[in-house]
Design a protein that fits this description.
The chain has 6 helices and 4 strands, in the order αββββααααα. It is α+β, with helices and mostly antiparallel strands. The chain has one domain. It binds zinc ion. The site of zinc ion has 7 residues, from helix 2 and helix 3.
Length: 197
């Protein structure tokens, strides 16, 4: 019974969430600042397909955001919207967060309702994978994570997320930073729980 419950919970968590999250508002007093773009990370989805990162500057507002999905031809892609408005640590974080939605299979699973517990679970997992990858793959990775989380928190406050949501997201990221586990092992556990591996 316990196993049954666990399995159904896990499969419910499997839902993809596309867009969220990594919405990042440029600071209103820094509208003229343009940050150079970081090179995209290597990213393979759970099926071993290469994920392509595509820059889109749509000229709307001073908002950076990212989205993981399959394009019209069915290829896995991460769209990077207006990245020049985000500092580089946050760019790394958004890239790897969106990559994580491909790595965990979120993109190909049914999407849970926005802001539902299942959705938030997927977001926490993606944040954790991004945190572990930055920590382990980028020089001075811990510092990059700490800078990214600070920038993320500032943006979430400006966008209007509640203090509770902002705090819990930050806490999750900081907890993940201390995990004695590499991203690959973490992803492996998720995929096995979802019976995708
Ligand atoms: Zn997300």
């Amino acid at each position: 019974m316990a196993t049954q419950t666990k399995l159904s919970l896990i499969s419910a968590c499997g839902i993809a969430l596309l867009l969220f999250i990594s919405v990042s508002l440029a600071r209103s007093d820094e509208k003229s600042i343009s940050y150079s773009l970081v090179p995209p990370p290597s990213c393979l989805n759970n099926l071993g397909e290469n994920v392509v990162f595509e820059n889109i500057n749509n000229g709307q507002a001073e908002v950076a955001a990212a989205m993981a999905k399959r394009d019209k031809r069915g290829n896995p892609v991460v769209y990077r919207f207006n990245y020049k408005y985000s500092p580089q640590p946050l760019q790394h974080f958004m890239d790897l967060h969106e990559c994580a939605h491909h790595q965990t299979g979120d993109v190909d699973l049914p999407h849970p309702p926005r802001n539902s517990p299942d959705h938030m679970m997927n977001e926490s997992i993606a944040d954790c994978i991004a945190t572990l990858r930055i920590r382990d793959e980028i020089g001075t990775g811990r510092d990059v994570v700490l800078q990214a989380v600070q920038q993320l928190v500032e943006d979430m406050v400006k966008i209007g997320f509640s203090a509770t949501t902002t705090y819990s997201r930050k806490s999750n990221i900081l907890n993940c930073l201390e995990k004695e586990e590499a991203a690959e092992a973490f992803i492996d556990r998720i995929l096995r729980h979802r019976e995708l591996r």
